[in-house]
Amino acid sequence: MKGCDSPRRVSALLNIGGCIMRSGIELSELEERLRLLYICGDLADERSMDRLEGLIESGVTSVQLRVKYADGFDLYRSAVVMTEFCRRRGTLFFVNDRLDIAMASGADGVHLGNSDLPISAARRIAPPMFIIGATAREPETAFMVQAEGADYIGSGAAFVSSTKPDAKLIGPVGISRVTRLVSIPVIGISGIRADNMTHLSGLGLSGVAVSASLAGKNGMSEAKKISDYIRGGILS
Predict the structure, then answer these.
(1) Residue pLDDT, tens place only, 126-159
(2) Per-position b or e across 169-182, b if 16+ CB within 10 A of its CB
């Protein structure tokens, strides 16, 4: 967990009666709600929504919609459905890459990659209380996006991933270099499963993002295992 009194705090954190992110959400609350982020690769339909409900009941605390093949209209329709669904369950909902769809659907935030709209530009047009996540593999990039106004960082690849096989592997050591340099929450990404969570211990992570292992037939039990590990302090 990141401390409010960290000497590394930069302009992405505003100390107003406690630690407040640029989005307006308290740091401690954001860390808690980013504990287990499910990256959903399916548009909203009966099957995917049933799965989503089961995963939330099993410990998922936030959801990111990431469907690369979908056009804007279908992505927007799914984002509207998932925004309302997650809000009723107290779960954060993000749209990957598409700031326009995230804002139009009323999502809690957006996650932007290195080739997407710059964080500083997104922050200028984002509404109040809107959460902006960024991707950073290198410490220098992490420091930059924090200064530009990112509320959290996804850092990896932690492990080889079946959903992103070409992602640059930085491993736990690379992730620890990122967490040491920034004060905003960092979540580990790529290839994370219950059976490799121990390798993420002590890295300074606030949570993890998981896709493939939660999308399979044993997704609910996997989510519960990962959630129980995190609640048990494995990331401390």
Answers:
(1) 998 999 999 999 999 999 999 999 999 999 999 9
(2) ebebebbbbbbebb
Radius of gyration of the chain (CA): 16
Domains observed in the chain: 28-231 (3.20.20.70)
pTM above 0.85, yes or no: yes
| pLDDT > 70: percent of the chain | 92
HEC sequence for 17-53? CCEEECCCCEHHHHHHHCCEEEEECCCCCHHHHHHHH
**Token code pair at residue 178:** 């990122």
What pLDDT is attached to residue 4? 55
Alpha-carbon distance of 186 to 167, in angstroms, equals 18
pLDDT for residue 72 is more than 50: yes
Give the span between the Cα atoms of 133 and 207, in whole angstroms.
13
Can you tell me which residue has the tokens 């896709």?
Answer: 211
